[in-house]
Amino acid sequence: MKISNTSIYSSYRDSEFEHTDNIPSHWIVKRVKDELLSLDYKRIPLSGEIREKMTDQIYDYYGASGIIDKVENYIFDETTILIGEDGANLLNRSTPLAFIATGKYWVNNHAHILKPRRGNINYFCYLLESLDYTTLISGSAQPKLTAGQLNRVLILVPSLQEQKAIADYLDSKTAQIDRQIDLLKQKADQYSQLKQSLINETVTRGLDKSVPMKDSGVEWIGEVPEHWETCRIADVAIPNKLKNTGLTEKNLLSLSYGQIIRKDFDTSFGLLPESFETYQIVKEGTIILRLTDLQNDQKSLRVGLARERGIITAAYLGLSFSRRVNPIFAYYLLNTYDLCKVFYWFGGGLRSTMRFDDVKIIPFMLPPIEEQVEIANYLDAKTVHISNIIITINKQIENLKEFRKTLISDVVTGKIKVTEEV
Question: Quick one: three-class SS letters along the chain?
């Protein structure tokens, strides 16, 4: 496929299609229900309990955002377009809203099912994915795109030949872009692994690789420099018990993705306490551990370092370290414990919440304070450099995603003309 030399159609006309002012003169505007048949009546939800009892999990089980499970039977054996009916993805579009389902599969009641009455199914999928449904969504707690609203959506219908040309062109171009995105994601993952490997190696082996080593006696740590001390968290830290009585502090902090960040004291979203007097005051250097919901969430980063004075929920455990410990070194060491999932299985892994009495017996590696400072400074410099590289890669990924989105929109709305290569 190729874009024509002019990259535009010979003539355009004003359009009632709300997503663009002008469309190619010969294109037709229709409603979804005129061009696509709804198969919603065929969908059947299956509870998690029912799916768990199935012995043969062979066929894809689709929900609002794609495949969510495997089941032992199917209700569809044809190619259809699925569009999410409810959920946050209707608004944030973090995953495709419209996508193709092929082969034998099952669909629950959280995705609309459409099949073209005529025309190219891939073209209609690209078109439906490019549209903004924000004004059609009802419900605030649970956003919903009803079948009635979807059926009334206006869509553009080129000739069958043009639909195929557009679909083939976008298949080729989006595949190229997706390959670039995948390569960049792999690159970012490699840098993330490098960063964590560097932290793990440095906080357990030190900077001088020539020093004699000894067995730490801790399974997940292995050998450490011979001159390092092995103690317990209780030997070097105490729980933070400084309460925000009288609202003396208003610098609201939060633990997010392993970082302590500021939040707006007056307009913070989410669950808020009746009074911030129940929050704990943390000082610069306090380590924060979020050790709640351990059974149900084994992915979150649970360790953060406060780099300024402020308040944070008392549901988190604050650790104040003695002068024998550099808090930045302590953060990197506990971050390694976090990523090794120590907090999840320590003590048998049966607790949904850990408190200081549970944490205090965890082993702690203690180099001389001067060496701790050297390690902390080294890791600060190295991790910032690697993090900046990852940020740059992620910006490239976002730019490619935006380019992909714009390209699809421009082609399916006729701003760019696609012709078949002779």
Answer: CEECCCCCCCCEEECCCCCCCEEECCCEEEEHHHHEEECHHHCCCCCHHHHHCCCCCCEEEEECCEEEEEECCCCEECCEEEEECECCHHHHCCCCCEEEECCEEEECCCEEEEEECCCCHHHHHHHHHHCCCHHHCECCCCCECCHHHHHCCEEEECCHHHHHHHHHHHHHHHHHHHHHHHHHHHHHHHHHHHHHHHHHHHHHHCCCCCCCEEECCCCCCCEEECCCEEEEHHHHEEECCCECHHHCCCCEEEEECCEEEEECCCCCCCCCCCCHHHCEEECCCCEEECCCCCCCCCCCCCEEECCCCEEECCCCEEEEECCCCCHHHHHHHHHHHHHCCHHHHHHHCCCCCCCHHHHCCCEEEECCHHHHHHHHHHHHHHHHHHHHHHHHHHHHHHHHHHHHHHHHHHHHCCCCCEECCC
